[in-house]
Amino acid sequence: MKAQSLRTLIVIALIVLWEALPRSGLVPELFLPSLSSTLAAGWTDAGEYGHALLTTLYEVAIAMLFACGGGILLGAIVGSLPRPRILIMPIVSSLYAVPLVILYPVFTVWFGIGAESKIAFAAIYGFLPTMLATAAGIQTIDPQLLLAARSMGATMSQRLVRVVLPAAIPTVLSGLRVGGALVIVGVVVSEMLISSAGIGYLISRYRTVLDSPHVFAGVLLVLALAIVFNAAIRLLERKAAIWQTGTRGAARDVASPALQPAT
Questions:
Q1: Which domain holds residue 132?
Q2: What is the value of pTM for the model shown?
Q3: Where are the alpha helices (DSSP H) in the chain?
Q4: Would you place residue 244 in the very low, low, confident or very high pLDDT band (cuts 50, 70, 90)?
């Protein structure tokens, strides 16, 4: 409760400073417009921002499907099989260290300057951390539990539901949080570079004419999108924690009889 109160006070202090510093002249309006003028600019052109937000949400949703869905699937396969893990993991880790934004011109050559290039770039941007986290989560599973479940006659689906998924969920969700955030970043950055629609395009367009209130109105929309995504991941973590607690006991029940003779 104390931490929550402290966070609330910090947010309130930031809001007050955002409004007070430009109004007092300590910070030029060109560098940081006041919060009231930023909200007024967004409200005045709410239709334009709403249309741009829908475009960005569409690109984020499709890219998230490929990045997170594909990353979890391929990460589970690579993490479960030793040979693909040895072959693929070093390559993926090396690619993750490369700033992928330098590859965006290649995506524009392949897919054009429309939504397709933004979706492809953001999907690749979020795919790598999701896959790495999922593969790492699979590798942290105690081999004795899998061996015990197999010796007790558990099917592949039973081992997946009762042992693998509960053990890997925390790491997978951490990778999903990072991968999803990078998808949002990838879409907005690609819109800022080459685009004619979306929140990133509006930010870039108003930046060229030095219209700081409209620029920060777009930034607030991106911030709100990131906050909503983070809240959704937190909700998934709470739901998964309940499910993991319930299934951990089942996994122990499966493992205990097989491990009893050894002890």
A1: 41-141+153-250
A2: 0.77
A3: 2-24, 35-44, 46-64, 70-80, 82-96, 104-111, 115-139, 143-151, 156-159, 165-193, 199-208, 212-259
A4: low
